[in-house]
Every structure is written in structure tokens, then in C-alpha cells.
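Narrative of activities, Objective 1.

The group set out to show that a structural description can be obtained from nothing but a protein's sequence at a throughput compatible with the screening campaign. Below is one input-output pair from the validation batch, recorded exactly as produced.
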Amino acid sequence: MLDLKFVRSNLDLVKGMLENRGYNLDLSDFQSLDEKRRSILSGLEQLRHRRNKVSDKIAAMKKNGEDTSSLVAEMKTVSKEIKEIETELPGVVDQVNKVLMLIPNMPHESVVVGESADDNPVIRKWGTIREFAFNPLPHWEIGEKLNILDFSRAAKIAGSRFSLQSGIGATLERALINFMLDIHINHHDYVEILPPFLVNSDSMTGTGQLPKFREDLFKVDGWDLFLIPTAEVPVTNIYRDEILSSDQLPIRYVSYTPCFRSEAGSYGKDTRGLIRQHQFNKVELVKFCCPEDSDGELESLTADAEEILQRLELPYRVVSLCSGDLGFSAAKTYDLEVWLPEQEVYREISSCSNFTDFQARRANIRFRRKKGSGTELAHTINGSGLAVGRTLVAILENYQQPDGSVTIPEALRPYLGGLSVIRREGAG
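Output recorded for this entry:
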């Protein structure tokens, strides 16, 4: 959430930001609502000051034996007015906050103004794209022929946009999770977190999923609980309504969780395979840091996510999201896009974002530099390290062989008992 004072003082700047982001949010009522709120607060303060001043006067007059009946009557009227204003104020404050909750974060100064992913500048590329001597297959055909992916039975069990993995397919998914966690914990000094997979509405609001993206969430009927769309939500909310010490920062967490998304508005997109699922596994990186360190922490987090792709020898590129492609809460985002040979395209496998103080203001995450000093809002950063299903997709497609088998990347072989090739298992 943006600071109210900032929005009030920079309303034209905020409106320009909304235009650059492609947001259709009408702020025409914001100024009048905010002026009404400020007027009510000013009037309330004056009445309270009047009540306190007259109360002191009444006490002094009573001490001198003077008649205070007229002042007492006046104070009854003032007290009634104060009570009426105190009743009205929360509704007006709530209206202002509802508008603030719908305003996205201000983009970082380095973010390019653009309309869509087509305008995202490529920052760097890594790896060599393999040249195939045969026509490469899409991952769903590879997985089904190897008898490790079953989408029809998953649809029978749950519906569309679910997958069923068996045998080495399930083992490979688990191996990827353990591999990613081990790299981030043992080489990048993240602390592992296993959070709840269900969170309340306060947590969803703190990271920016609510109220704007309610339709993308799965809610538990009759409970104030939602299935998490990403580990970012529970892990960021670890410090909601808490004050940290600057000595604790930066804090670096890594978390594996399943993730659940309704994919509202994505019908017709990636309907086949593992790219866009209602349920998928992800390893998430989350950081809390001081404001002056957040730019550097984003760069190092992105590099940490890139190392997973490098160790798996998967070609990829890094793009910086333009204003029109930037997520709601993010000030700056790098997308890692892995090469998929069947489609001959780069596809997102990780988004690494600096949220500056946007989430921290919503979740009230603060820190203190030294004892007795005031508090400041922390900066939050996160990114996938990586999306596990999409990593599996990239391995199946990039490592496929002419005979239908799939070579296992060397870095993963210790997690699979030394297995080097996936071949078709017995039909179930």
C-alpha cells in the first residue's frame, strides 16, 4: 500500500503511474474523500480541545463556588457532537483505505514504460540452445509416453488443470524440490521455513492478494482461510505487526509449498500440460531488509534463482518487466524465462521482485535501527527458486532423446540414486 500522504501530495504522479501500468482505477473521488476525512479529524480535534479547556475551567469555577450550569450544558452538547463524529469517522477512513488498497506500487525508477511483455527488455541470456536432429515433443507427450504423467486420470480425480505424476515422474518432482532447497540452504544461506498452507484474510491483505485478486484465490467455505497461491504469503506474514531490529536484517527464508490458484481469466491459455495448473509445487525465496539494501538484495536473490537453472544446464534469459507487465505489489521485477524447444519460446519459470515498503506498510512490518530510535518500514523481496513443475517441463523438453527417453541432468542424479536416463515404465 502506498503512503496516504504520498498519494495526497503526488496525486498527478500516481495517476500517471496508473496510466503507465495500464490500470483503470478512477481516483476522482479520492481527493474529496481525503479532504472530508481531514476536515472531520480537524473538527474532532477542535471539539476535544474545547472540551478539555472548558472542563478545566469548570473545575476551577467549582473550586471558587461559581455557577457552572451553562458551561456544563455546553459540554453536554460538545460531547454529543464528538460522539457523532467518532461514529462517522471510521466509515470515512475505511472508504479512503479501500481506495488506497487498490492502488498498485510505484515502479522503480529503472523500470521501462511499456504496455505488455513484448516491451520487456532482455537483460541477459545464459546457456546454449540445443539443436535437435528430430522434431522435439511437448512435455505432456513425453511424460505420457514415459508413463510418468497422467492428465486424464487427474481430470477424473479433480478436474482440468491438475496432473498426476507416478513412478520416476513423482520421484523427479521430489528430487527437484530437495535439490533446490539444498542449494539455497547450503550455498546461499537461506533459512528453511515450512509454513501453513492455509492463511487468513489478514495475511492475504498484507501481501496484496486481497482485496484486488480475490477471484484468483481458493477460499475454504465457512472459514476465514484461503489456500496459499504462493509461499510468499505465509512467509512474508511471519513478521506482520512486529518490530525487528536492524541487526536481524537481512532475513533470508526459503520455503517449499504446494500452491493453489484459480487461474481466473486465463481460460484458453496453456490448457495442456504443467504450465498453468490449479495446484503446483514451488520453492520460494523471501527476504526482509533495510530500504537502502533492497536493490542489491533483489540482484542477489535473482542470481540465486539463476544458479538453479545453471546447475541444471537449462538455457534461459532474464527480462526486466516493463510498467504494463509489472505485478500489483512490485516496484521492480526480473523474470527468469527458460527455453522450451517444442514451442521455441522462452517461458517464465521465476519472478523475482522488490516490493519496497508496499507490503510492509500493509502488513505493518517495521524495524528499529537502534534502541530508543523510531521505527521504519522494512523492504520485502521474493522470487521463485524455482517453480518446480515448470522446471520439470524444461528438463523433459530440453533433455529428450530420439528414442523417447529423457537424460537426467547431472546435478540431479545424486537425488535419484544415480539414475541417468528416464525410460518408459510399465503401464498401470
